[in-house]
TrEMBL record:
<keyword id="KW-1133">Transmembrane helix</keyword>
<dbReference type="InterPro" id="IPR008253">
    <property type="entry name" value="Marvel"/>
</dbReference>
<keyword id="KW-0812">Transmembrane</keyword>
<feature type="transmembrane region" description="Helical">
    <location>
        <begin position="69"/>
        <end position="91"/>
    </location>
</feature>
<dbReference type="InterPro" id="IPR016579">
    <property type="entry name" value="Synaptogyrin"/>
</dbReference>
<feature type="transmembrane region" description="Helical">
    <location>
        <begin position="25"/>
        <end position="47"/>
    </location>
</feature>
<feature type="transmembrane region" description="Helical">
    <location>
        <begin position="103"/>
        <end position="127"/>
    </location>
</feature>
<feature type="domain" description="MARVEL">
    <location>
        <begin position="19"/>
        <end position="166"/>
    </location>
</feature>
<dbReference type="GO" id="GO:0030672">
    <property type="term" value="C:synaptic vesicle membrane"/>
</dbReference>
<protein>
    <submittedName>
        <fullName>SNG2 protein</fullName>
    </submittedName>
</protein>
<keyword id="KW-0472">Membrane</keyword>
<feature type="transmembrane region" description="Helical">
    <location>
        <begin position="147"/>
        <end position="165"/>
    </location>
</feature>
<comment type="similarity">
    <text>Belongs to the synaptogyrin family.</text>
</comment>
<dbReference type="GO" id="GO:0031594">
    <property type="term" value="C:neuromuscular junction"/>
</dbReference>
<dbReference type="Pfam" id="PF01284">
    <property type="entry name" value="MARVEL"/>
</dbReference>
């Protein structure tokens, strides 16, 4: 009896405590925090320059694409988490089964795509970090390692979101 995508349960009052305790909401918050950490580390310490030069370069083997990719998927993942968090808030109020279906499918597709993109990002950043010469790293090594670590964790957090959407 829940109807299509839970449409029969639509309506009612909003309970914040019950909402925040939902596993999907917790996984979405964790995914947003991981994305924030990745792009903040790359924006903050992902670019550096030698003491005798003014030109900035990406800390990952001087590969600008590595920093751009990490920042790009991190920012988009963070914004998507905010969007789908708002969808989670309003989802119980949507009574149209077709609208609910499209929102669930959008969450499913986006979560699947972002799980894959985080995997690619982790592999790309790890590979570029392994080719980075130690003498090229003046500051930012910890931020680079944090970006790699949290991109790895993001694979699983978005995979969990994919599972919940399924």
């Amino acid at each position: 009896g829940g109807g299509a995508y839970g449409a029969a349960k639509a309506g009612g009052t909003f309970d914040l405590v019950r909402f925040v305790q939902q596993p999907q909401v917790l996984a979405r918050i964790v995914s947003a925090i991981f994305a924030l950490i990745v792009f903040a580390c790359l924006v903050g310490d992902g670019y550096t320059n030698p003491p005798d030069d003014y030109k900035l370069f990406c800390i990952f083997n001087h590969n600008e694409d590595a920093c751009r990719y990490g920042i790009g998927i991190g920012v988009l993942a963070f914004l998507a988490c905010i969007f789908f968090f708002m969808v989670d808030v309003y989802f119980p109020q949507i009574s149209n089964a077709t609208d609910r279906k499209y929102l669930v499918l959008a969450d499913l597709g986006f979560s699947g795509l972002w799980t894959f993109l985080w995997f690619i990002g982790f592999c790309f950043l790890t590979n570029q970090w392994s080719w980075t010469r130690p003498e090229d790293v003046y500051i930012g090594a910890d931020s680079a390692r944090a970006a790699i670590t949290f991109s790895f964790f993001s694979i699983f957090s978005w995979g969990l979101l994919l599972t919940f959407a399924y």
